[in-house]
């Protein structure tokens, strides 16, 4: 497989009094599509810039393909960056923008033409070679930036929120295109984003960051289904959070007491002690909503009133106030004609039921 | 229907230019074609004697020297002003630094020249200090030579270059420098291959703002220079006040104006080759190389922030 592995060990960086990275360690495999995900100011861009060579870490080392790159300037590193603002050279044509790295290297003119046209066709811009960047649309500029970053055949491509300047529709499209470019060139992609949807849909693995720390590294499924902390659970997708005290534990099955919900059954392997305070989470789509009292083997069931139905075509989101006073969010898919009509309406009395196995313990503190 | 009052709005400006620019210029042109008066002034009879007198070797020598001094001073100024403008543009307290650049303008031009005389003169501050320290009793002769003229000219006109360069560099997107570095260029290459072409407009403005006034310099060579530092401005003044040959003074002035105008035209309005090429290939391409000074906005210099975090 092409590409390089990137190893980040104990990297810290602060700007004045602000700590951007706190002892961050990551291992990125060859050819991986690896996302750094987190809210703005979480340190993800600083980490990317440290890998690219634009920031010097205060401590720690970065290895690209096994060799330490500390102190190497960006032009000496075998990685290239796609900038958030594209950073195309306005005085050069599309062709010359893409050819820039080759001209610096004094590549023979004939080879330049061949390589540039090959990369322009990779991003489907063959017909725009002689245009200036100012004549291109946002999506086209983005493609030029990608072609330009790939022409040096780097072993790692760094992408700094490359889609954030595009509108929502185009962003989806470009994301799929990025994915297919990744498949074609096969090199390591490190992708910085604050958008959890983007990260979930294309990444092989995701590192969720907040306040300079890496909170969890895992595949999109692991991150979504088994968030490691309350922050990760809240940041990725929508979720319901309960904070409660463990009353009893038998095997992996816990009974917890949650204020304004009552008692809940939680089936989770995380070892907890009776008396611990734990935080558990459940995704809204795992809560069933119905007009009739649920029957069957659902282990948790609560009664409530629909406070806010939010219809969005393929699904309806219900915010339900339960008897104890707490609020739960649930999704209901409209999969076929019989489920297409939101027959549950505002102020309806409903039943919510969910399995003990779908509740995940994300935090625990003794006592 | 509304009447188009366009021409009326221009009238004050036109009147101003006619009285204070066009008319004096025409008077000078007219004087250059009249016969020289005995004690200065002119006689009202046509003559091309003044234009014939221009072609003399002494004047040619002074012209060449003036060109040389102006070019040297302009090049030094641009080389100094580029890093200055860059550092001001990238600094956090731009206002303070710009203020410091502008402060000297609060002092009269002549007073600033005399200030240099009192610093570098034979009995000036530097020589007195050297004498006091017992280093060089007889002192240095800093002034009254070509080098001193260039030095003071550079000092005088440096702000005129810093300001336009600052304003163009301030609009420059510094991410482009990072992109250049990322794509394999050295620090120097990132400045010469990416920044310089994008701030070309500012450089042209800075050159015009400094070269033109220096080409017509009069006070600096007079006060700072020696016998061999005469520039065209001094020759004109001498013709006017000492030799009292007004037609010749007018003819020299007009030639200078013409020379400058031609130079500016060639320098500032020349279309860069590669832009022409793009235009030939793509009829949609706009000629965005309006390169003349003050209003220049090179391609992409209107900084556009990536907008819209949008929904996923």
TrEMBL record, chain A:
NCBIfam families: potA. One of its GO terms (molecular function) is ATP binding. Gene3D superfamilies: 2.40.50.100, P-loop containing nucleotide triphosphate hydrolases. This is Spermidine/putrescine import ATP-binding protein PotA. The lineage of its organism: unclassified sequences, metagenomes, ecological metagenomes. Keywords: ATP-binding, Cell membrane, Membrane, Nucleotide-binding, Translocase, Transport. The keyword Cell cycle does not apply. One of its GO terms (cellular component) is ATP-binding cassette (ABC) transporter complex. CDD domains: ABC_PotA_N. The gene is potA_2. PANTHER family: SPERMIDINE/PUTRESCINE IMPORT ATP-BINDING PROTEIN POTA (PTHR42781), SPERMIDINE_PUTRESCINE IMPORT ATP-BINDING PROTEIN POTA (PTHR42781:SF4). Residues 6-236 form the ABC transporter domain.
Automatic annotation (TrEMBL), chain B:
It is found in: Cell membrane. Residues 63-267 form the ABC transmembrane type-1 domain. InterPro entries: MetI-like, MetI-like_sf. It is a multi-pass membrane protein. GO terms for biological process: transmembrane transport. The keyword Membrane applies. Keywords: Cell membrane, Membrane, Transmembrane, Transmembrane helix, Transport. The chain crosses the membrane at residues 12-34, 67-86, 98-119, 139-158, 203-226, 246-269. Gene3D superfamilies: MetI-like. PANTHER family: INNER MEMBRANE ABC TRANSPORTER PERMEASE PROTEIN YDCU-RELATED, INNER MEMBRANE ABC TRANSPORTER PERMEASE PROTEIN YDCU-RELATED-RELATED. Belongs to the binding-protein-dependent transport system permease family. CysTW subfamily. This is Spermidine/putrescine transport system permease protein PotB. It comes from bioreactor metagenome.
